[in-house]
Amino acid sequence: MRSFIRGGAFAGSLALSAGLLLAPTASAGVQAPEACPPDVWYKVVAYPATHEGIGSTAGKRNAGSASATLRYDMSTTTAKQSTWTDELGGSINFGIAEVTAKTSHEITKSTTKGVTVSNTMNVPGRQYGYTTPKIERRTFIVEKWQDTSTCGARKLGNMGKLWAITAYPFFSECVATGPCTPKP
Predict the structure, then answer these.
(1) SS3 sequence of the chain
(2) How far is the C-alpha of 53 from the C-alpha of 169, rounded, in Å?
(3) What's the confidence (pLDDT) of residue 11?
(4) CA 138/CA 106 separation, integer angstroms
(5) Which residues contact 48 (CB under 8 A, 6 or more apart)?
(6) Considering only CA atoms, which of 132, 129, 131, 133 is closest in space to residue 176?
(7) Could you tell me the CA-to-CA distances from 31 to 23, 35, 68, 147, 151 in Å, in that order?
C-alpha cells in the first residue's frame, strides 16, 4: 500500500511538472484584462472673453442729489453671429452641442440689427452714467481624442474652432462726473 501511495505521489508530481513546462498560449482576439477600449471623445478648450459693440453709447446725467436708477433703451446697429471653422469635421451645431455640454456657457447663434435692448444703472447724484450694448465672445477649440489600449489617451486633432457669442446683450458701463468710455 505504501509503494502505491508513493508511486501515485511521484506520478502526480511528474504530471504537475509537465504542466508547468508547457508554454502559455494566447488568442489574438482576446484583449488583456488591463486593455482599454479605443473610445473616441471630445475635449473643449476655452479662451478668454472679448467684447464687441452692437450699438451706440448712451448716457444720462442724474441731476438729483441722491442716487437714482437710470434706464437706457437703445437699438442695436450691428448683427453678429457665432461661426465654426471646420478642421476634422462637424458643423456649427456639433460645436455648439459640445461646448454647451462641457462648459457652463450658453451659445447664441446670431443677433439681429434694429432690436431694442434695455439697461438700468444705479448712478450717484450729479454724475453721468454711460452704457454701450455689446456681445461677449469666446473662442472654443473642440479637440478629438482616443483612448489607447494601454488606457492612455492620444489626440487625433481638432474638430474645429467655435467663435461663439456667449453673452447677448452684454452692457459695458461707466459712471463719472463727466463723459466717460464704458468698459470693458
Answers:
(1) CHHHHHHHHHHHHHHHHHHHHCCCCCCCCCCCCCCCCCCEEEEEEECCCEEEECECCEEEECCCCCCEEEEEEEEECCCCECEEEECCCCCHHHHHHHHHHHCCCCCECECCCCCEEEEEEEECCCCEEEEEEEEEEEEEEEEEEEECCCCCEEEEEEEEEEEEEEEEEEEEEEEECCCCCCEC
(2) 10
(3) 53
(4) 11
(5) 138
(6) 129
(7) 19, 6, 71, 15, 12
Contact, 105 vs 138, CB < 8 A? Answer: yes
Q: Which residue in this structure is represented by grid cell 470693458? A: 184
pTM over 0.85: no
Cell triple for 125: 447724484
Q: What is the tens place of the pLDDT at every residue in 18-70?
A: 554 454 454 445 555 567 888 999 999 999 999 999 999 999 999 999 999 99
Q: Cell numbers at residue 167, please?
A: 453673452
